[in-house]
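Subject line: Sequence and fold of a protein, written as structure tokens
Area: Proteins and the way their chains fold up in space.
Start of record: The labelled sequence and token lines come straight after this line.
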Amino acid sequence: MWNIPKIWEGGQCIILGGGPSITTQFGVPNSIVQDVYEGKSTPAVYGPYMSAIHAQHVIAVNMAYKIGDWIDCVFFGDRGFLLKQQADFFAFNGLRVTCASGVGDYNGNLKVVERDTRKKNGISFVPNKLCWNNNSGAAAINLAVHFGVKRIILLGFDMKLDSGQNQHWHKYYHTDVKMVDQTMKMHLKSFPAIAKDLDGKVEIINCSPDSSIVDFPKLNFKDILL
């Protein structure tokens, strides 16, 4: 198991989720988004449009690591994600971190941390343990806390379908639309506990417009970073 270092102590980081609002916020043309959806382009085409955050500390959740090599860390919590993504995943040069069980460490190329089984939702302050929260995005918040940050900016944490019925900014995996509502309701249960645990300790700003998460202040990322 990995001993999580305080590599960003006292700083801030951005956590990139899978919500489709990311492409809208960064002004990615619809034609390019459609090319990614259709598999004609890789998510790396989004990278130049996101230059405003290239110099920031960034954790990518799941498929967001494909956006660019300027991302510092990729985090996932589901074993199935690694099984499907091994070839590309291990070509990523940043930190690769997981709290999934039964994955091994691939000769030290994967940083594995434990889930805090005593706590279902919220933040685990036990060293080197994460609260799973039933979703990788929320667990990544716990990872950022262990990295020592004092401010976390959430991007792509929509927790809802967009007007085109898209759950993600990619089509690498699909969720039956009928199941999305149930899944998102399950995911949303973790954020009140996270807000309570971090109150007065770590600031979280939700820069995902029209996000279903109501537990953190919402701001436009351009007002913070530009």
Q: What stands out?
A: The chain has a mean pLDDT of 91. The longest strand covers residues 12-16.
